[in-house]
Amino acid sequence: MANKLPSVFITYNPKSEFERTLAFRLHTLGAVHGYKMYLPDRTIGGKKVSSESRIRIQSADYFILFSTTVLSDTVKEEIEIAWNNLHDKSRIIIIYDGDKNLTGTEHCTEIAVDSDKMTLEEITKSVLHEIHALNKTAAVPSKNPVVGIKQEDGLIGALLVAGLGLLLLGALMED
Question: Could you give the CA distance from residue 101 to residue 121 in angstroms, rounded to a whole number?
Fold first, then answer.
């Protein structure tokens, strides 16, 4: 059987520039290294999860949520779809900025960051480190509970280096 990298759906609150920036950078970084990365299919002012977003969430092995602000109704609906789809709740990765603002997440993977003290590069590195650790300890990286594949350390290292490079390039281009 050929090794398959996991697929990842990354959601963010539409009105949070911080979350959107992190989501798009993680999306780009993962795609560059062969991960199947998904972002929400949203229309401006849309209040419901599109059928395309629903398909993306249901086909993803992992669901990443940035919860640094009050969640929009659309994001809440996306979480519910992921919650019903992923049998292993540790595959739902919640990233907080400072205080935890969600309840009922005991079985999820939670990552705390501090945007006041950490740069985008440090936050991204922290998130990728946690995902790497989760993949290494997970018995089954795919949604199928019978067949599992572990990540190779070399790929994750390359992913981290490339991600930091992309973040640095993005920071330079913003100036």
Answer: 23
Domain that holds residue 154: 7-174
Look at residue 1 and tell me if it is in a domain: no
Give the domain CATH number at 50: 3.40.50.10140
* Strand partners for 67: 96
Query: Which one of 18-22, 54-58, 124-128 scores highest in mean pLDDT?
Result: 54-58
C-alpha to C-alpha distance for 7 and 34, rounded to whole angstroms: 9
Question: What integer best gives the mean pLDDT of the chain?
Answer: 76
Residue 2 lies in a domain: no
What is the rounded CA–CA span in Å between residue 82 and residue 76?
A: 10
Please state, as a whole number, how many other Cβ atoms lie within 10 Å of the Cβ of residue 160. 17
34: left (phi over 0), alpha (psi -120 to 50) or beta: left
Q: Is 55 left (phi over 0), alpha (psi -120 to 50) or beta?
A: alpha
Which has the higher per-residue pLDDT, 166 or 25? 25
